[in-house]
Amino acid sequence: MQTSFRQTMFRQTSLRQTRLRCRQLVALLGTLLLLSLACNKEEETEPTSTVEPSERVAPSPVGTSQTVLEKTFPLKTTAIFPIEIPAHAAMPHLHGIFESFVGQAHGASDDSANVDFMILNEEQHTDLVGNRPSEALMTVEASHNQAVNFDLPASLDRPVKYYLVFRNTEASKSSKVVEANFRVDF
Predict the structure, then answer these.
(1) Distance of alpha carbon 29 from the chain centroid
(2) Which residue range is the domain that position 127 belongs to?
(3) Are residues 112 and 167 in the same domain?
(4) What mean pLDDT is predicted for residues 41-52?
(5) Are 83 and 163 in contact (CB under 8 A)?
(6) Which tens digits make up the pLDDT trace of 73-102?
(7) Are residues 168 and 109 in the same domain?
């Protein structure tokens, strides 16, 4: 009887272990199935951002400098040079010098070589091109040799376009040549 009791106990223990292993195997297979489904799940689209564009962090041009005009050019009536200030420029500073000559570069540079110089934003440029009266951010009238130092408005979260405008003075009809060198520090 003892052998049969031992055999019965052994069988019951073996049966419990087998059932336990089956449960563990089923749990393991279920876990693997869930993991497989999770890995194959399609990526959901990202939610739309509620952050305002002006609050976004982006690279800042602060501490850099950019040449915006370095040229000698003929001036009969008007010459316009667009410049672009990159986004996030907190304090862009335009500086440079221009000199105008009558007839040819490094010719006569006196009052007979005077030109007008303006810095315009986009709206003012549109008014100038459309022959509508407007003001300029900065104006230098009747000069043949001028240093320019001007703080442009901050560009915030978008690049901003400005225009350097050279205009032959109303009184003069002679052709002129302008040598201009301008940079923007950010």
Answers:
(1) 52
(2) 61-185
(3) yes
(4) 61
(5) yes
(6) 999 999 999 999 998 888 999 999 999 999
(7) yes
Tokens 């672009």, residue?
A: 84
Mean pLDDT within 129-143: 94
How do residues 25-37 score in pLDDT, each as one tens digit?
777 777 777 777 7
Per the CB < 8 A criterion, the answer to whether 159 and 61 are in contact is: no
Question: What one-character DSSP code corresponds to residue 5?
Answer: H
Nearest-angstrom CA–CA distance, 175 and 115 = 11
Number of domains the chain is built from: 2
Contact 83, 180 (CB under 8 A): no
Instruction: Tell whether 86 and 25 lie within a shared domain.
Output: no
Buried b (16+ CB within 10 A) or exposed e, 138-169: bebeebbeeebeeebeebeeeebebbbbbbbb
Q: According to the model, what pLDDT value does residue 29 have?
A: 76
Residues 105 and 151 in one domain: yes
10 Å CB burial of residue 26 (0-12, 13-18, 19+) is exposed
